[in-house]
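Key result, reporting period 2: structure in, sequence out.
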C-alpha cells in the first residue's frame, strides 16, 4: 500500500518513532516553481487542469519530502459549483460579485451534481495519485460550511465578516438553509474525493474563531459534525478550526481522527481541552518560520516534546506565508525528520 504511512498511523493514534509533518498551504507562493506556473495560468485554470493541479501538489514534496501531500485546489470551488460566481482577483483574493443576502439570492443556489461540476477535482486526484506513486498519502479538503458562508455572504475576505454575521443574527432561517445546502454539497464532494483516491480529509474552519462559543455551536460546529458523521467510516477526518480552542472538547468527541490547533493555544492546553487521547495537529506560528533555521529547528523539537511524539502531526498553526525563505521551510521539515525521542 502506501510506503510512508507515518501520517496515517498518527491519525490512528499508533506509536511512531517520530511524528509526521506537512504544512498547511504547502503548495504556494513561497515556492519559485509554483510562481512560474502561477504567472502562466490564472487561479481557476490551475485548479481545473489536472496536469497543473497535480504538478503543483507534488512540488513541495519533491523539494522537502513532507509525509503527506495536500491536493492543490481551493475551498471556494464549492460555492462556484453551487452556482455562485467566484473570482480570484490578483493582489486582492476571492471576490464574489453577487453575494447571498436574501431568499431570492438563495433560491438560485443549487446542490450540484458533483461529477458534472467538480469532476475535474477527481481527475486531479487521480493524476496526483499517479505522480505520488504510493510513496505518501494524499489529503483532500473542504472549507467548513460556516467558512464558506462567510465568503458567500460577505462577497470577499474580511477582518470581521460583519455582513456574514449580520445575516446569521438577523435572518437565521436563511443562514441555516444556506449552511445546510453547503453541508449537503460538501458531504457529497468529500465522498467523491475519497472514491477518487484521497487517504484522509481535512475540514478548514478558518473563520470559526470569529464566532462566540455559543454561536459557534449553532452556525459552525453542528454542520462540521454532520460532515464528520458522514465521512468518518470511510476515511480519517481532521477538523481544523482557527481560533476555536474553546470547542476542542466537543470536537474530541465528534468521531474526527485528529484536531487542528493554531499557535495561540499551548500544547498543554490543547491536550487538556481535547481530553488527552485524540491526535492533534499544529501549531507552529507561520511567522516563526521567519526566524533563523537553527532557531526554527530548536523550536520544532521543543514543540514535539510539548505535544509528545505520539498522537501528533507536526504542522503550522495556519497556512505558510508567501515571504518564507526556502531554507526556513526546509529547516521546519528537516527538524521533524531529525527528531529523536
Ligand atoms: O494547502 C495547500 O497547499 C493546498 C491548497 C489550498 C489553497 N487554498 C490554494 C490557494 C488550500 C488548502 C486552500 C484553502 C483555503 N482557501 C482556505 C482555508 C485555509 C486557510 O488558509 O484558511 C481559505 C480561507 C481559502 C480562500 C482563499 N483562497 C483565499 C483567502 C485566497 C487568497 C489569499 C491568499 O492566500 O492568496 C485564496 C487563493 C489561493 N488558494 C492561493 C492558493 C495557493 C493564492 C492565490 C494564487 O495562487 O493565485
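The corresponding designed sequence is given below.
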Amino acid at each position: 500500500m502506501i510506503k510512508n504511512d507515518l501520517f496515517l498511523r498518527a491519525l490512528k493514534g499508533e506509536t511512531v518513532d517520530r511524528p509526521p509533518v506537512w504544512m498547511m498551504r504547502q503548495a504556494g507562493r513561497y515556492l519559485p516553481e509554483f510562481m512560474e506556473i502561477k504567472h502562466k495560468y490564472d487561479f481557476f485554470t490551475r485548479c481545473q487542469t489536472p496536469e497543473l493541479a497535480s504538478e503543483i501538489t507534488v512540488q513541495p514534496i519533491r523539494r522537502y519530502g513532507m509525509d503527506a501531500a495536500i491536493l492543490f485546489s481551493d475551498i471556494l470551488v464549492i460555492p462556484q459549483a453551487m452556482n455562485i460566481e467566484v473570482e480570484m482577483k490578483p493582489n486582492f483574493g476571492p471576490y464574489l460579485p453577487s453575494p447571498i443576502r436574501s431568499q431570492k439570492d438563495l433560491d438560485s443556489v443549487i446542490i450540484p451534481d458533483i461529477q458534472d461540476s467538480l469532476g475535474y477535482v477527481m481527475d486531479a486526484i487521480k493524476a496526483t495519485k499517479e505522480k505520488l506513486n504510493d510513496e505518501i498519502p494524499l489529503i483532500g479538503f473542504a472549507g467548513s460550511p460556516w467558512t464558506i458562508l462567510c465568503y458567500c455572504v460577505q462577497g470577499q475576505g474580511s477582518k470581521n465578516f460583519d455582513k456574514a454575521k449580520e445575516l446569521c443574527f438577523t435572518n437565521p432561517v436563511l443562514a441555516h438553509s444556506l449552511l445546510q445546502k453547503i453541508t449537503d454539497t460538501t458531504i457529497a464532494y468529500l465522498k467523491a474525493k475519497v472514491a477518487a483516491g484521497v487517504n484522509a480529509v481535512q475540514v478548514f474552519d478558518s473563520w470559526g474563531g470569529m464566532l462566540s462559543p455559543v454561536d459557534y455551536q449553532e452556525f459552525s460546529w453542528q454542520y462540521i459534525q454532520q460532515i464528520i458523521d458522514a465521512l468518518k467510516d470511510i476515511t480519517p477526518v481532521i477538523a481544523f478550526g482557527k481560533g476555536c480552542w474553546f470547542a476542542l472538547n466537543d470536537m474530541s468527541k465528534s468521531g474526527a481522527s485528529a484536531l487542528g490547533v493554531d499557535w495561540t493555544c499551548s500544547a498543554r492546553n490543547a491536550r487538556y481541552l481535547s481530553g488527552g487521547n485524540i491526535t492533534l495537529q499544529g501549531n507552529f506560528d507561520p511567522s516563526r518560520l521567519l526566524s533563523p533555521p537553527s532557531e526554527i529547528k530548536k523550536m520544532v523539537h521543543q514543540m514535539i516534546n510539548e505535544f509528545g511524539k505520539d498522537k501528533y502531526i507536526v504542522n503550522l498553526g495556519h497556512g505558510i506565508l508567501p515571504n518564507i525563505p526556502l531554507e526556513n521551510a526546509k529547516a521546519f521539515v528537516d527538524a521533524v525528520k531529525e527528531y529523536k525521542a
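The mean pLDDT is 98. The chain has one domain: 6-337. This case is discussed further under Risks and Mitigation.
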